[in-house]
Amino acid sequence: STVEHGFPHQPSALAFDPRLQLMAIGTKSGAIKIYGAPGVEFTGLHKDTTAVTQMHFLPGQGRLLSLLDDNTIHLWELVAGPPRELGGVKKEGVVSLNEVGSYSLPGRPGIESCSATRVTVLLLLKSCDLLCIGTEGGGVYFLELPRLLLKDNLTLPQDQITQSLPDDYRCGKSLGPVESLQEHPQQSGKILIGYSRGLVVLWDLNARHADQLFLGKQQLESLVWERSGSLFVSSHNDGGYSVWSVTSGNACNPQPVSSTIPYGPFPCKAINKILWRTTQAGSPVLLYSGGMPRASYGDRHCLTIQQDKDHVTLDFTSRVIDFFTVHSVEQEKEFDDPSALVVLLEEELVVIDLQTPGWPSLPTPYLAPLHSSAITCSCHISSVPPKLWERLVNAGRQSWPICGGKNLAPPPKQQELLLTGHEDGTVRFWDASGVALTPLYKLSTANVFHTDCDPCDDPQDPGNDPDMQQEEEWPPFRKVGCFDPYSDDPRLGIQKISLCKYSNKLLVAGTAGQVIVLGLNDERSDHSVDVSVVDLLQDREGFTWKGHDRLEPRLKPAPFPPGFQPQVLVQCLPPASVTAVALHAEWNLIAFGTSHGFGLFDYHRRNAVLVKALCTLHPNDSLAMEGPLSRVKSLKKSLRQSFRRIRKSRVSGKKRTITTPTSKANAALAEQEEVAPVQRRIEPRSADDSLSGVVRCLCFADTFLRDGTHHGPTLWAGTNSGSVYAYALEVPGVGSGRACERGGASESSTCVEAVLGKEIQLMHRAPVVSISVLDGRGKPLPDPYEASQDLAIAPDMTNAHSVLIASEEQLKVFSLPKVSAKTKFKLTAHEGCRVRKVALVVFSSAVQEDYSEHTLVCLTNLGDMHLFNIPGLRPQVRYDCIRKEDISGIASCVFTKNGQGENNMFNVLMKKKKQKKLESPCCFTLSLIFFTYKYLHQTVWHKCLDLVLLQQSCVSNLLWNEKQKHSSDFCCSVSVFKAELFKPASGAKNSFSAAACLLSSAGFYLISPSEYERFSLSAKVLTEPLCSVQLDRPLEFTLAR
């Protein structure tokens, strides 16, 4: 089955069921997505990948009509499956969306038969038994529902209307296509028919005659009734709208009551759709899209809301597809009283609260555009504490007007967070615990600084000038929506994120050298942020920074909403992009690195502990030196190769006299070994590279550095030139038998001190990708607070520790404190690839709950994944995971710490594009987002190791495919691969078994937007979501497939 995440790709139609509170979105690829309350989602796929142009719900029935671009009409139904049994308790069946019928309007005989019967508009009567169809030829047809039978006796050709028109209006011209059909709100059977030329006819369906004619002279775009039925409003292509009065006894009405061009008098664009909603306050709410002055704002995507003197022009960043209001539809109610406006845009869904003064926008619990601003970094947090989770949910909680259906999915056993940093300086928190990503909370760092995009920072604000204000307040634009792929100030971009889930401390670092420490607060706060400047070059002479300026911090108190609020701002100089960060909340320390060095800062005492300068060149200078450097490298390489050839020729010359068969065989074998890519020769990198000072990784560890008997806090830093610096730290209250209180260090006035303990230089100067310290048992050290709060097994401090250093070319383990090499694996020499991402992951046995193994997982530049045991670094498995051409996907990959759920297997299941079948375990995406994927097997959630991929391109959706448990292809492919992936290592205890692998009964594949047309919702196997809906009609049980 196919499931779509994020915002649908190329939406084309919108519908709403006010009784069931369900919303439907159709796409250009023929997909239908129905949404209700958060977690309620249904998917339908047409047989052909044709654009959905219109959709209409049959209110309360769970039925949906869709019109495709190929002129076919389809009927869909929500159908319930048989009741389920969970733990011996009978539960209601899961509802799915199924197509039950289709209809194509037959063409009339003649050359223009196809165009004449092309459907332009649909109208579903309130009785839900008749569908009115307007066509391009001007005719109106009627279809009986739900049988989809054409009622020939009700067909209304355009000629019949033309005969009743006055001669001066007829003029031999055609009325044009039917543009709008609207049923009278109080009198059933009476329909407004609007033609493109401007004519509007009130047609009595029962008497089959025209009650009234409204002779409009401007090209018509849309119609809408007022609730009482005494008047209606028409919008036109000149940017204006007209109000018409409906009175009995007046068969022909040549003039409207009023006509208005709101943004005239200059030529304006058409008002594509208009709504009129009555309120108890007296003044109606008028909503319409378009109508902007053609010359000045013709390229704007706008929707206007008017009520009395209140007038707002919502300015969107993408095209308006359609919109509707959530309002009262009960017949006994006198007013509409709209509560919300829902606008479907090309790139996002926007909801406006119409009951709150100012009409603010509401955050959406689904359909969030993950690419609203370019994603620059990500961070995954597993097993989030309940208190932190509740506070995050409360910080971003908002009401949601679409609340239909019931989510039947069981609650997750643990909560998981995905944090994404964006180019606009925001950090977004996503609920990654379920099947879909749900936005929880958005943090903005822009209000910490004075930026160009903040109008309040300009001392010469044009708003203070009455003349300027009068010129700029019309039209009254207001930017709405979160989709904005172009940042106003790229210096705000978030580059690194680190979160301590136990102390509620958040560390974010940006493009302009800003490092911000934030704390969680449930209340709104007005305060100033402490600012500390750290000069990484320590005023070194001869250096001139040629890059962007630093962001100017706000010195006065600023308002901060509930959630994470900034406490300390550390500004690095030069203001280069931050390349690495580390947070240790238990010691109140943060470490940060750029292309010029790294620093250590005590955010409790607000002082810098350590500053280490590594580079004196601006990164841009490397472009000017690229030619000479590459030339030197090539010269060295050619000289080295020449000497090797000479050496080989001498050796071969000495052995030419030996002609025995054994010598020939040995020579052939040596030649074969030399040609075979078993172990490649690695050339050392230049030490003069201007990028050698880039800090690649930082980490804190409580380990043995000075001697083998005393352990204490340490800081480790790895650079781009293969250098590793290890500092011994003296933290007050740590290592002296006194444990620091949570959230703050000892009250002693003693400052933190740092002393260089070790310095390691890798032989080939390959960039250091990751540094991890292993305890006496060869396991990674626990996170801060985990050991002191008994949240994890305490590390082994009795046996010798070791440090695992992963460079781009090899993995190496050193013993501590002597820093002597224990074991290594030359990945580049053996496999011809370079390491890009590394993580230590916990794999738990599905058979024995108390057994788990720590494994080193690394992703290479070729897109393949390698697994090694630690600390022995024995290769376990290799798998081709991502296309090597997907450079952005590989560079932005993130591994989770462990797999959670009942089956903590590293279960990677990928779709082979050509064969379209699952063949082996893998958890990856070829597109934008990380997802925490879960598999449903009867009553148990099975979850694989999560692999996060975040691409910085604009991506609108993610898809995966699941095969059923009883699929022979799936079971066969798993059984073939299990011998390779889950083959027990020699001496391994209770290694993963094939039976454990088969517990996960569903696989998936993901599709990038660039391949959307080929591999997207054209798949015909549909998802069965865990949700239900209460309908007015009975839900027939269907047998499960």
Tell me what the structure shows.
The protein is mostly beta strands. The protein has a domain at 378-453 and 488-629. Helices cover 11% and strands 38% of the residues. The protein contains 14 helices and 69 strands. It has a five-stranded mixed β-sheet, with no helix packed on it. A hairpin with a 4-residue loop joins strand 14 (140-144) and strand 15. The longest helix has 29 residues, at 626-654. Residues 260-360 form the Lethal giant larvae homologue domain.
Write the layout of secondary structure elements.
Elements (H helix, E strand, L loop, with lengths): L1 E5 L4 E7 L4 E6 L3 E5 L5 E5 L6 E7 L4 E6 L3 E9 L3 E3 L2 E3 L3 E10 L8 H4 L2 E6 L5 E6 L4 E5 L4 E2 L7 H5 L4 H4 L7 E6 L6 E6 L3 E6 L4 E7 L4 E6 L5 E6 L4 E5 L6 E2 L4 E3 L10 E7 L7 E6 L3 H4 L3 E7 L2 E7 L3 E7 L13 E6 L3 E5 L7 E2 L12 E10 L1 H11 L9 E2 L7 E8 L3 E6 L6 E7 L4 E2 L15 H7 L4 E3 L14 E7 L4 E6 L3 E8 L3 E3 L2 E6 L16 E2 L4 E3 L2 E11 L6 E5 L4 E5 L3 E6 L4 E7 L7 H4 L1 H29 L6 H15 L19 E9 L8 E8 L3 E8 L22 E9 L6 E7 L27 E6 L3 E5 L4 E6 L1 H5 L3 E10 L7 E9 L3 E6 L5 E6 L6 H5 L1 E3 L38 E4 L2 E4 L3 E3 L7 E5 L6 H14 ...
Pfam families: LLGL (PF08366)
Keywords: Exocytosis, Repeat, WD repeat
Family: Belongs to the WD repeat L(2)GL family.
